[in-house]
Every structure is written in structure tokens, then in C-alpha cells.
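Hey all, quick one. A colleague (J.T.) asked me to put the adenosine-5'-triphosphate job into the tracker so the inputs and the C-alpha cells live in one place instead of scattered across chat threads. No bug as far as I know, just bookkeeping. Sequence used:
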Amino acid sequence: MLEVKNLSMRFGGLLAVDQVSVDVQEHEIVSIIGPNGAGKTTVFNCISGFYKPTGGQILFEGKEIQGKPDYRISRMGMVRTFQHVRLFGNMTVVENLLVAQHRHVNTNLLAGLLKTPDYRAREKRSLDRARYWLNRVGLLDMANREAGNLAYGQQRRLEIARCMVTEPKLLMLDEPAAGLNPAETRELDQLIVSLKEDYHVSVLLIEHDMSLVMGISDRINVISQGRPLASGKPEEIRQNDDVIKAYLGEA
Amino acid sequence: MAAENIKHAFFCAVITLIIAYPILGLNLIPSGAVVSLEGADGSTIAAIIAAAVVVFLFQLFRDSIMARLGFLSRVNPLSGREPMPQHKRARLESWLLTGIIVLALFWPFFVSRGSVDLATLVLIYIMLALGLNVVVGLAGLLDLGYVAFYAVGAYTFALLSQYTGISFWMSLPIGACLAALFGLVLGFPVLRLRGDYLAIVTLGFGEIIRILLNNWTHLTGGPNGIGGIPEPTLFGMEFGRRIKEEGNTSFHETFGIAYASEHKVIFLYLIALVLAVITALVIRRFMRMPVGRAWEALREDEIAARSLGLSRTAVKLSAFTIGAFFAGFAGTVFASKQGFISPESFVFLESAIILAIVVLGGMGSQIGVILAAIAVTILPELAREFSDYRMLVFGAAMVLMMVWRPQGLLPMRRIHIELKDQG
Ligand SMILES: Nc1ncnc2c1ncn2[C@@H]1O[C@H](COP(=O)(O)OP(=O)(O)OP(=O)(O)O)[C@@H](O)[C@H]1O
Ligand SMILES: [Mg+2]
């Protein structure tokens, strides 16, 4: 469903991403790994429309999307999280989920002012969806707290829930396990697999935690200093000499 | 450090002299066809020098003076108080508001005509400030040309009534929608700009509208303005002594009471009150709707908001347009109240005052903004004894306020949407 071909991104003199290709099929978890500064986040930023790539092609469900505005891409069903959590800290946990569903609620101002039955029904549905996902990620008790006051691990889960209420086809997670303890990482592991199995969402994952990546990925792409190094199934990557030298050996 | 301070203080004092001397120390005396320049008398010169000395001393000891002033905020008895729980506060707020509205409904029948007139002005400012609050306080867009939309509303009514004889009630929605349209058209290219740039462009737009009104003489009457703007009617009843429009009846004859000029003033006041209440309620509702949350989300974290599919331009444009709409509303009422408008009424100072109301009240907070609108409109009236110095008093009050309570009178507390237990 997602196909990235020969993507390049240049910042002035720095070629941060050089001819990287990634593809994600339906019902698949694909990971991008690489040492710090390899250009993983930059690839994400290009795919999600935050950067306009300087070269290459990005296809989502057969349509070219490179250079499209970020909100359009998100509306097509490709939603991302961030390496550093970006919640609306002054809003409550539910409100964070409601913002994400703005398109599901009637955007007609008059309908909202007059509280038409249709508007109420939509509003109720989005609250229900929020309740469902809060329950799913174990945050229902926190629903009315300010998002900024949650513990770090909870914020991470809220960010994923916030993506899921938009009902995406492809979920892009940028280092979701960063800063989590082993127990939380295991929970996250199960959550991601369940997103794929139970909700039919494909996942594109950036992660440093090797056990997580090796455990759940269907395929892995390794990039180093902006260039593709290897790609394949987890066991192939584990045995790839280049990868061991460039990445696993260094750790 | 000390040497630096002295240099800076000296510099400020010299600037004070350079600015103050020509303005206060030199007088232009017209004698017949020629104008001659005359130095001021000794006491004025002494005052100017004294002012320079004060500036010098203040700048020299600025750090310690400001530290002293900062101490004021600790004196504030309310500063360390626990915030009230949300449902209690909401209940208190709605009681308070209902009380104020009821009081406001009956109040004009017991006071002087002048007070009612002033109160109408206050209500117009409340509408303006509530509208600008959407743009600045909720959406976080600094708009320095808000008065332009106010002018559009006022001139729409003035021109329409002059050329087509349209009534106040017809013109109210037209003026508001036209102002909103202006907001939309201006906002579209401009809202990609950030912070300071946006402020400058909107400032420019405000001036352009004013200059246009000033120079498009054959349509707007230029600096002479437009007069004879009709007052609102009540179901075709006019409030003047004699009927101006054919087919209308007059209020005092219909009800068989003696003519009193107060009727008209009170009626206008009540219209302004109803419109201000509507403005407040509508905006309050917006704040809890998806649009309101979108404004807030975009203000809090633009990147995250965009990643969730919020279009920056569309969201900002909606705030800008809604803000302009209510300015148009206020403009129509203003034109009708004055009966005469000219570009004089729509200068930059007006934008600045409305912005000051929003900032003083506490960005985003409706009650705060309403209180600030009352204070800012009435204080200069009360300070009339200070005549020439009242703007100075006003400025000093603002500075003190910002030192004392930088977050505004009543800073915004969000009304959270709560997820009820399984219902
Ligand atoms: N907006 C930008 N302007 C200039 N250089 C940038 C920009 N964004 C990223 N870079 C550079 O591109 C390179 C790749 O950065 P990127 O954040 O994509 O790495 P990463 O693989 O995500 O690293 P990490 O594992 O630390 O998150 C870095 O050298 C970074 O400094
Ligand atoms: Mg990164």
C-alpha cells in the first residue's frame, strides 16, 4: 500500500536521505532501523508530508503523494506519532482524542450551534470511539486528566490511541518504545501486534529496541548515514555482515 | 555593570529631552497669516528638565524598582489560591452571568441618559473584544487591524441606508456577513504568515481600509463621513418625535405615552445588550465544538495538529472569519448609535484598545474580557478630570496591571469536556 522509491532529502549541503526505498504491504509490520542520525525520522517526515523530498517518489495506494500537504496525507489514512511525544498538554485525555476526530464530527458550524440530532449523534459516536480506545490502551481511568500530567509511558500510549481514533490504514510510529521500561515495552509489543491482527492496520516502525523490532517485524529496512544498507526478514538482517558491522556491532 | 547602567540611563534622559522639548517647550503662535515660533516659559522648561531627571533616576535604579513592583504580585491575596473544581466554577459562573444580565436589563430605567449611552458603548466594545478574543485568545493570531472589520460593518449600514434606504435589522446580518467575507478574503493569503509578520500585515490592512474610506470621497464622503444613519425600529415603530420613514408608526403614539428621548437610547442599549449576549453565547458554544478544539489544538502544537489532518489555513481562517463577523455586528450597532460615522472612528488606536481589552481580561477568558471591556471604556470617562493626562493615566494603569497580573484579570481556565461513566 505504501511504496517509497529512491527517496532523497537534502538539507543544504547535507544529504540526510539518499536513495532510500521502503515498501509496506497490507497487513504487515515493517521496521526501519539504523544508527543515530541515519535519517530515519527524515524519511518519516518526507512520507508524512512535513518535508518536501528533494528526490524520489512516494506512492500511497497507487497515488503519488510526495509534496502534498501534511494534513491531506493524514486524511488519506496515514497517521504518525513523533519521536518526542507531541500531545496537547493542556487538554484532557479525551479531548486529545476528540481533536483527532474532528472530521468525524459534523464540521458544519450551524449544526453545532443548533445541536441538531445528527450533530449530537456524531458527537456521541466520537466520544464512544474515544472511550473504546482509551479502554484498549488502558487509560480509561485517566480520561479526564490533563494529558500533560500523564506519566511518560501513558503519554506514549495516548499518542497511539490518538492516531487510532482517526481510523488509519497505515500507522507510522517513531521510536514508540523510547524511554519505556521493559514491562511497558512488552505491553507495547502486544499492542502493535494487535493493531495489525485485530484492526487490520499496517505499521511502519522506527525503533532502536532490537528485541522489539526482531520480534514483531515482518520485514526490516536498515539505513546508515542516509543510505540503504540492507532489507529483508528479521533473521536475514540478524545475519547480514554489513548490518552487524555498521549497527549491531556498534551498540 | 554600574557604568553600563549610568550610560543607559543618561541616554534615556537625553532622548526624553530631545522628544519633550520640541513638543512641550516650543509653541506655534498664529498671528494673522504668519505663524511664529515661541519658546515656552521657565516653568515648562523646568518641568521638562525635571522629567528628564526622573527618567534618568528611574533607568539608573530600574532593576531594584522593578523588583519592588514584582513584589506587588505577592501582595495579591488571590494569587496563591487553589483553583475551584470545574463543576463548581461553571455553576458559579452561570449564576453570576444570569445575575449580571438581569441587572443589565432593568438598570437603564433608573439611571441617566448619559450613563445608558456610555453603557451602550461598553456593550459595543464587549462585542468587539469577544470577537477579537476568538482570533487572538483562542486561535493565537495577533491581529492589529481588527478595527477594519468594525469599519466594514459600520460603513455597510451607513452606505446601504443612504443609497437603498435599508433598515437596521436588514443591515445587521448583511454588515456582519460582509465583514466576515473581508476577513475570509484577507485571511486567505495572510494566514500562512507567522506571528510578527501577521501582525504587521493586519496592521497594514486596517490602515488601508481607513485610508480608502478617507479618499473614496464620492462614495463614502471621505473625512466628512456619512450622517443621517437611521436608528433601529421596533416592529416598524420609530423612536423619534416625528416619523421619518413612510409606513412606520411612532413608538410613543402607538403606546399612548408622552415622547421621551430616553426611549430611543434605552432601546438601542437593549439591542446592544441582546446582541452582546448572543455573541458571548455563540462564541462559548464554538469553544466546545470541534472548531474550538481545533483552534486550541493548533495553538498548542501545530505540528501534532497537522499530523492529525487539521488544515492550518482552514482552522485559522475560520477563527479570523468568525472574529470579523462579530466586528461587523458591532459596527452596525455603532453606526446606528452614532447616527454619523467617519474614518476618524476607525483609527489604529481603536484596534489597540480592543486588543488591550483582550490582553487585560486574560486571553481566551470571556468573563475576564467582559470585565476588562467595562473597565477600559469607563475608566477614561471617570478620569476626565485629568483631561489631557487621561491617556497617560490609562497607560500607567495598563503597565501596573501587566506587572501585577501579567496573565490578565481572569485568565482563561479551560472548560473541559468530561467523559462520563458508562452512560
Ligand atoms: N530540518 C533539518 N535541517 C537540517 N538538517 C536536518 C533536519 N532534520 C534532520 N537533519 C539532519 O539529518 C540527519 C538525519 O536526522 P534524523 O533525525 O532523520 O536521524 P534519525 O535516524 O531519526 O536519528 P535518531 O535515531 O537519533 O532519531 C541528521 O544529521 C540531522 O542533523
Ligand atoms: Mg529520529
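Adding what we noticed when we looked at it: The first strand of chain A starts at residue 2 and ends at 11. The pocket of adenosine-5'-triphosphate (ligand 1) is lined by residues A 11, 14, 16, 34, 36-42, 83 (CB under 6 Å).
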